[in-house]
Amino acid sequence: MGFEEAINRLKRQIEAYDLNILVWGPGVDSGEHFEKRRKIKQEISNCFYNADIRFSEELDLTGILPGIDQLDFPAQELWHLSACDLCVVLDTAKGAGEEIAHFVGSQHAHKLLILTHERYESSTNFPTALRKRQNQLFYSDEEYFTCNLVKQVLTRIKTIALGKLSGMKV
Q1: Are 84 and 20 spatial neighbours (Cβ–Cβ below 8 Å)?
Q2: Sheet harboring 20-24: ordered strands across?
Q3: First vs last Cα of the chain: how many Å apart?
Q4: Could you tell me the CATH number of the domain that includes residue 98?
Q5: Confidence of residue 129 (pLDDT cuts 50, 70, 90)
Q6: Confidence (pTM)
Q7: Per-residue confidence at 136, pLDDT binned at 50, 70, 90?
Q8: Would you say 135 and 110 are in contact if contact means Cβ atoms under 8 Å apart?
Q9: Which domain, by its residues, includes 147?
C-alpha cells in the first residue's frame, strides 16, 4: 500500500470519527454573519457524518443537568466547552469576542479555533494579545465571501480527529 492509499484510508476513518463540535459566533439576528456560521456548521456536518455539531443555543442540558438553567451564561458555556472536542469561533460578533476572552485562559483554550479577519493579524490591542497564542485562522474578505475558510477549518478538524485516533493531543 502506497502513501496515497494509506492517507485515503486514514481520511475515511477520520471522517467517520465521533466528534463533538461547537460553532460559536453571531446570533440569528446578525444577518450574513449568522448565515456564515450556519454554513460552517453545515460544511462540517457534510464532512464528518458521525460528528455532533451544535450551536450552544441548541444545547439544552436541563434534562441531563437539573438546575443548569439557574447557572449564569459563562457557567453553562463551560459545560458545553468541556464536553466538546473543538469549538470553532467565528469572531465577528461582540458575544463571540467575549466568549474568547472568558475562556482563552482556561484549560480548554486549546479547543478554541478562532476565525478572525486578516485585518486584525498585526493589531497590537488587548483582544489581539489574548488571541495571539491560540489556534487562530486568519481569513481575507474573499475567503469569507466564498467560504473557502471552511477548507482550513475542515483540515484542522481532520488533524484533531487523527490525533484522537492516534491517542495524541493535537
Answers
A1: yes
A2: 52-54, 20-24, 86-90, 112-117, 135-139
A3: 26
A4: 3.40.50.450
A5: low
A6: 0.88
A7: confident
A8: yes
A9: 3-166
- Region of poorest pLDDT, from 1-10, 88-97, 117-126, 151-160: 117-126
Summarize the confidence of residues 65-71 as an average pLDDT: 89
Three-state secondary structure call for residue 37: helix
Query: Cβ(19)–Cβ(85) under 8 Å?
Result: yes
- Separation CA 106–CA 80 (nearest Å): 13
Report CA 125 to chain centroid distance, whole Å.
23
Mean pLDDT of 71-100: 91
Count structural domains, the chain: 1
Closest residue by Cα to residue 137 from 103, 95, 97, 90: 90
Give the CA angle between residues 122, 170, 51 to the nearest 5°.
Answer: 105
Calpha distance 153→115 (Å, rounded): 9
Q: What pLDDT score does 52 carry?
A: 96
Q: Which pLDDT score, from 0 to 100, does residue 139 have? A: 86
Amino acid identity of residue 58, one-letter, is: E
Instruction: List % helix, strand, coil for the chain (3-state, nearest 5).
Output: 55, 15, 30
